[in-house]
Amino acid sequence: xxxxxxxxxxxxxxxxxxxxxxxxxxxxxxxxxxxxxxxxxxxxxxxxxxxxxxxxxxxxxxxxxxxxxxxxxxxxxxxxxxxxxxxxxxxxxxxxxxxxxxxxxxxxxxxxxxxxxxxxxxxxxxxxxxxxxxxxxxxxxxxxxxxxxxxxxxxxxxxxxxxxxxxxxxxxxxxxxxxxxxxxxxxxxxxxxxxxxxxxxxxxxxxxxxxxxxxxxxxxxxxxxxxxxxxxxxxxxxxxxxxxxxxxxxxxxxxxxxxxxxxxxxxxxxxxxxxxxxxxxxxxxxxxxxxxxxxxxxxxxxxxxxxxxxxxx
Length: 313
Ligand code: GRG
Prior knowledge:
Blueprint (H helix, E strand, L loop, with lengths): L14 H26 L8 H11 L6 H12 L4 H23 L8 E2 L2 E2 L1 H5 L1 H21 L6 H15 L4 H11 L6 H26 L4 H28 L2 H4 L14 H5 L1 H17 L9 H12 L3
Antiparallel strand pairs: 1-2
Helix pairs in contact: 1-3, 1-4, 2-6, 3-4, 3-9, 3-14, 4-6, 4-9, 7-9, 8-9, 9-10, 10-13, 10-14, 13-14
């Protein structure tokens, strides 16, 4: 499926050497994203300086940077240059960060801690936190539209549309609504999977498919990568539910043990911890299987599938 252009920045030797190369690949790409994110939001000057400060406070607070690294890895898996997907990678992380800020507000989950620090509204107040989220969401599309060097305009337009759809009422926002309306109500496994395919999965699918499209992927490659991302997104969510049950607030940097308290249906509550762990590993296997037609340049995507289920935060 993928052609035979040389790999950039990682090798495929077996065993520990390969694991090391993948680890340094992921670290390097995350560092590139970090630097690009810092350039994506203006410095906190001028009359609206406090807004930019609030936006940077949450955006530059760390986080795993999983969605942007997935986008870059997908772009490179099909032979594209990381630079072609960098604007998109920043855009999707800005949108993800906005969703976290809004999700933490008193009118939603009412959380005090995120990414190891006080939530945005705890520091800047509810009005400014709402606006910081709005700023990140809207500016994400400026960053995307203005920074895809060498990518045909039609591909950029398709990427804008796919990202907006994944983030909006048909995707993440719709998923959040289904989640809100389902609180305190018993959900079936199918309902839970549907909810998460929107709330969490849609951004994972957009990260991978848009990253690949910006790298010049064929339709067949995008179809296979969509399957990869759907399985990965669900595995990620199952593990998110497990982390909420098994980890401490201090280790994770956000409040844990809250799903049960809020009466939320989760994988551990529906099928138990052991079966949830098994399910996450099966889904990661499914994700890796979807990459069967790709060459060594998809190694980072394979490694990211393993990371998503073995992570502890
Ligand atoms: C408010 C429109 C709106 C949407 C909120 C994403 C979301 C929808 C809510 C966040 C709460 C939550 C637990 C979502 C499910 C999994 C998830 C998205 C976890 C956070 O993502 P990570 O683990 O976070 O990638 P970091 O901080 O590492 O980027």
